[in-house]
Specification:
This protein is of the alpha+beta class. It has 16 helices and 14 strands. It has a five-stranded antiparallel sheet, with helices on both faces. It has a three-stranded antiparallel sheet with strand order 7-8-9, with no helix packed on it. Helix 7 crosses helix 15. The longest helix has 27 residues.
Length: about 500
C-alpha cells in the first residue's frame, strides 16, 4: 500500500474514533427523561435487566426541610436579629385574649395555677401510709412528698436538701445502670440514698454533630442540670431534682468500681484517667470518659420512689418520632393527626393533652427531640402529671429551632391559660427567661452550665411558641377553643372511643 493511501486510512480511522467519543459523551451528558423530584436525593441503581435506571426517594426529615409555615431560614433569622430590639413583638393581641378569658372566669390573667382546680392533692406518702421513720431521711421526704399534681411544691425546702445532699455527701458505691444507649452510673451514698450519674463527655461549646441523628446524639450532663432548673422556672415542677458535681475519678469511681466496669479503666496517652463501661453507643476506647487528669464533671439526678412502693405506668408518646434514618412517624405525614389523638382516652378530656402541650413547649425551649415515652404514677390514676425525665440530648443546637417539636401545639391548637401567660411574662416582662435561667444555674457547682448562645436561644424560642399560639387563635372560632383556663373545660368525649393502655400509639 502506498504511503498516500496509508495516510488517508489513518485519517479516516482517527475521524471515526473522534465521532464515537463525541456520541458517547453526549449520551452521558443528556439526562434521562424520567421525572426527577428536585426536593429529594436520588440514587441510580441497576434495573431488572441491568440496563435501566431506577430512582429512590430519600425523604427529608422535618429538620432538613421545615414543614411548618412559621419556620425561618437561618439567613432570615440573622437579618431580623439586628432589628429585634426595635421591633420586638409584645403579642398584645394574645394578651387581650387572655384578659377576656380571665374576666369571664373572674381570674387574673397572670394567675399561676389557673389550669388546675383547687382540690385535694394527696402525696405518695399519704396514699401508701408510710411511717415517720421512712419520712425522716431527706430522700424519704422528697420521694414520699411527690403529690398528684407535681413532683414537689413551690419553694419546697426538701428540694434544696436533696440537691445539697447529692452535691456533698460522700460516695460509698458505684455500679453501672443496665440498659440505655450511653453510660450511666448508679451512685450510692453513705446514708443509703441513690442518684443517677451522667458524666461529662466534651466541652460546653461542642454542639450536636451535623450528621448525627437525634437518636445517636451524645448525652450532655449539663443539659440534665439545665432542664431541671428550666422546668422549675416554667412553673411545671415535674422534673426530678438534678445537680452538677465534680468528682475525683480515682477516689470516687475507680476505687469503688467492680466487675466489668473496672476492666474498662485505662490511662490515656495524655496521662488522663479514662473509662467507658458497657452500653449500646459510645462505650469503647475511642469514646471513653476521661478526667482532667482525674477530675470529672457530671450530673446527679435523685431517684424516684421504688416501683414496689409507687409503681409507674409507661406511655408511648403520641408524637413519638420514628427513630429511623428514613422512615417518618404518622404525625409527620398527617397534618390532621391530632384528631386521632383527641379521640383516644385519656387525651379526650381533662389534663393529659394539655400536659402534652406543656411537655412539647418544654422540649422545644431546650431543643430536645428525644421524647419517645413518658411515665405517670399509677397511685394517682390518669388524672396526674407526666414525669419529666431524661433530657440528656437537649441543648444540642443553639442556632437551630426545631419547629417539629411543637407539632402537638400547632396540630391541636390547645394550651393552658397559665402556660401562655407565663411565657408572655418572660417574653415582655422585666426578666427574660434566659436571665432567670442563668441566675438559677449560677448556684450550681459546674457553672456556667449553659453557653450564652443556648441562653439566647431560649428567649428566641419563647417568641416562636407565642407566634404559634397567635396563629392558633387567629384561626379559631373563639379563643376558648384554644386557651383553657381550667383543665376540666377541655373535653372531646364521645361514645365508643378507644382507650390507650400505654401502647396505643406505635
Amino acid at each position: 500500500m502506498k504511503l498516500k493511501e496509508r495516510l488517508v486510512m489513518a485519517a479516516m480511522g482517527f475521524s471515526l474514533a473522534v465521532v464515537l467519543l463525541v456520541l458517547l459523551d453526549i449520551n452521558l451528558v443528556i439526562p434521562h427523561t424520567e421525572h426527577v423530584n428536585s426536593q429529594h436525593g436520588r440514587v441510580r441503581m441497576g434495573g431488572k435487566d441491568s440496563e435501566k435506571h431506577k430512582s429512590r426517594i430519600l425523604q427529608k426529615t422535618p429538620s432538613q426541610g421545615q414543614e411548618y409555615k412559621l419556620s425561618k431560614s437561618e439567613e432570615e433569622k440573622s437579618n431580623s436579629d439586628s432589628k429585634s430590639k426595635e421591633s420586638k413583638d409584645d403579642f398584645n393581641d394574645v394578651v387581650q385574649f387572655l384578659m377576656k378569658i380571665s374576666q369571664k372566669h373572674n381570674r387574673h390573667w397572670k394567675a399561676s395555677k389557673a389550669g388546675r382546680p383547687e382540690e385535694s392533692n394527696p402525696t405518695i406518702g399519704e396514699v401508701v401510709s408510710v411511717s415517720e421513720a421512712e419520712m425522716s431521711s431527706v430522700w424519704g421526704r422528697f420521694q414520699y412528698g411527690i403529690s398528684k399534681e407535681e413532683m414537689y411544691s413551690d419553694k419546697a425546702p426538701t428540694i434544696t436538701e436533696v440537691v445539697d445532699t447529692m452535691r456533698q455527701l460522700p460516695i460509698v458505691g458505684i455500679s453501672q445502670k443496665e440498659g440505655g444507649t450511653q453510660l450511666k452510673l448508679i451512685i450510692e451514698y453513705e446514708d443509703g440514698g441513690q442518684a443517677l450519674f451522667k458524666p461529662m463527655r466534651f466541652p460546653r461549646t461542642q454542639e450536636t454533630l451535623p450528621n448525627h441523628f437525634y437518636f445517636t446524639d451524645y448525652e450532655r450532663h449539663n443539659a440534665e442540670v439545665a432542664a431541671f432548673h428550666l422546668d422549675q422556672l416554667l412553673g411545671f415542677r415535674r422534673a426530678v431534682p438534678v445537680t452538677g458535681r465534680i468528682l475525683n475519678i480515682t477516689r470516687d469511681i475507680y476505687s469503688l468500681a467492680e466487675g466489668d466496669l473496672l476492666k474498662t479503666f485505662f490511662i490515656s496517652p495524655a496521662g488522663n484517667i479514662c473509662f467507658h463501661g458497657k452500653c449500646s453507643y459510645y462505650c469503647d476506647t475511642s469514646h471513653a470518659i476521661c478526667g482532667n487528669p482525674d477530675m470529672l464533671e457530671g450530673s446527679f439526678a435523685a431517684f424516684l420512689p421504688a416501683k414496689s412502693v409507687a409503681p409507674r405506668k409507661t406511655w408511648r408518646h403520641p408524637w413519638r418520632r420514628s427513630y429511623h434514618k428514613r422512615r417518618k412517624a404518622q404525625w409527620e405525614k398527617d397534618p390532621d393527626y391530632c384528631e386521632v389523638v383527641r379521640d383516644v382516652h385519656p387525651y379526650n378530656q381533662g389534663r393529659r393533652l394539655l400536659d402534652i402541650m406543656d411537655l412539647a413547649i418544654f422540649d422545644f425551649l431546650m431543643g430536645n427531640m428525644d421524647r419517645h415515652h413518658y411515665e405517670t404514677f399509677k397511685l394517682f390514676g390518669n388524672d396526674t402529671f407526666p414525669v419529666h425525665l431524661d433530657h440528656g440530648r437537649a441543648f444540642g443546637r443553639s442556632g437551630h429551632d426545631e419547629m417539629s417539636i411543637l407539632a402537638p401545639l400547632y396540630q391541636c391548637c390547645v394550651i393552658r391559660h397559665s402556660t401562655l401567660s407565663m411565657l408572655l411574662t418572660y417574653h415582655s416582662g422585666p426578666v427574660p427567661l434566659s436571665t432567670a435561667l442563668n441566675r438559677s444555674l449560677s448556684s450550681d457547682p459546674i457553672k456556667p452550665v449553659l453557653t450564652n448562645q443556648h441562653l439566647e436561644a431560649v428567649d428566641r424560642r419563647v417568641g416562636l411558641v407565642l407566634q404559634v399560639a397567635r396563629e392558633c387563635l387567629d384561626s379559631a372560632e373563639i379563643p376558648e377553643n384554644v386557651i383553657f383556663i381550667r383543665d376540666e373545660l377541655y373535653s372531646n368525649v364521645k361514645p365508643g372511643q378507644p382507650v390507650d393502655d400505654g401502647h396505643y400509639f406505635s
